[in-house]
């Protein structure tokens, strides 16, 4: 894989999608796949950006100690087996004979190095390792991961912890990841996974080919897979209908019937684990994008946040914007997730009259203006949802100035705190309710590796107290009781405004068989072209 110079990037960006389609249409055969999604992975570094487009894509290239199967169950990957070390942590027995794409042998030193890298301050994945006290190499194929307290769900929590070759990283001066700058690992890869990247043109195309030295049994029949990021949904659908692409993810909700009714195509449909929500700048002392309100931040008042909740007609968003292809959400995880709280299952209803009354009670009878940040290429109908919600909020006096942008620019804006309110989607990597508490609700703490996606800086001492207890509690009823308390706190304090659970909508040629997982990761190793 080669570097892409800035000049080459500029030239590549000028290519039309039609020219790309025509090039691949002339070379493709039955075992090749061309697929598209709106978001190009921001980086090829598996520790630099903790986002689904990056992790989902790189799960085809890199591997972890464990992985998720077709039904999201945890199974061995680079570790053949694992067992608790009393209450001190977990021992992982590593798979022998595994090779990286460049031929280097996989050993325990690569696990230790990858832990040090992925848990570093520079890594966006550092929160994954907040329960970890240390990682110790027992021998070349045995690793102990010791935790601060008993942690029964720890193996589930590292399914996306991908292993880099220590020697490769050191040789290429990429010992630490970089979120917002370019390194060798942002454009180049060297994993142990079933596919290797043979060319990468960010924003244009990425080509993968099977790794002949992969340790596992091959289930796919692909000889080549080309990813084409297509931000415009209509262009993606057009490409699928014309045969210029073989698979698109997602199918726009307005085109579901069109795809399902075409005998040459196949609609793959389900419910994702991802909850779409609105967040607030809890720790912002003043609004950043208001025309008239200065020196104060109304969203620090729970009554104002409740007003925002009641101003939004989530049912209408599901029926109109999502065309019925979503489920209402009441909390930060869907009912399918472990630890979902039945106690917090009821969401606050749409009530614009009550919203206006709450604003007046909080001291804003005439409302106020503020900035709403949203991505326009990350979630299904994200910009359309934000436009509709901006109108709903404005109707009760909360005048939203919407700024929608590509996700590549969006995450840096959120990390910099450049918002008053923002849109976020969250899919728990562990499929457990502890996950969003750790990332989205716990007080941000770099030293403890907590709250790394709590962009608004919400802080609650009781939630912080409960999280480590939830992580170590083995008794299911005691654990659920604590999860219920947190869910009710998050709901009643309106830390976020949950909107809906995003649907899974993929479209493909009818010659393609695949497995659609609830994490919305497209796994090439399960795709066959007939």
Share of helical residues: 25-40%
Q: List unreliable stretches of 5+ residues.
A: 1-29
Mean pLDDT: 93
Count of individual helical segments:
17
Secondary structure category: alpha+beta
Measured distance between first and last alpha carbons: 29 Å
Main sheet makeup: 11 strands, mixed
Description:
- This protein has 530 residues and is of the alpha+beta class.
- Helices cover 29% and strands 22% of the residues.
- The chain contains 17 helices and 19 strands.
- The strands form four sheets. Strands 1, 8, 9, 10, 11, 12, 13, 14, 15, 16 and 17 form an eleven-stranded mixed β-sheet that branches.
- Helix 15 packs antiparallel against helix 16 and helix 16 runs antiparallel to helix 17.
- The chain is globular, with a radius of gyration of 23 Å.
- It starts with 5 loop residues before the first helix and ends with a strand.
- The N terminus is likely disordered.
Layout of helices and strands:
Elements: H1 6-13, H2 17-27, E1 32-37, H3 52-58, E2 66-68, E3 74-76, E4 79-84, E5 89-94, H4 108-118, E6 132-139, E7 142-147, H5 154-157, H6 166-171, H7 184-187, E8 195-201, E9 205-210, E10 224-229, H8 233-242, E11 247-248, H9 256-260, E12 265-280, H10 302-311, H11 314-321, E13 327-328, H12 352-361, E14 368-375, H13 382-395, E15 398-405, H14 407-415, E16 421-426, H15 434-441, H16 461-472, H17 476-492, E17 496-509, E18 512-513, E19 528-529
Parallel strand pairs: 1-10, 1-11, 14-15, 14-16
Antiparallel strand pairs: 2-3, 4-5, 5-7, 6-7, 8-9, 9-10, 11-17, 12-16, 12-17, 13-17, 18-19
Helix pairs in contact: 10-12, 15-16, 16-17
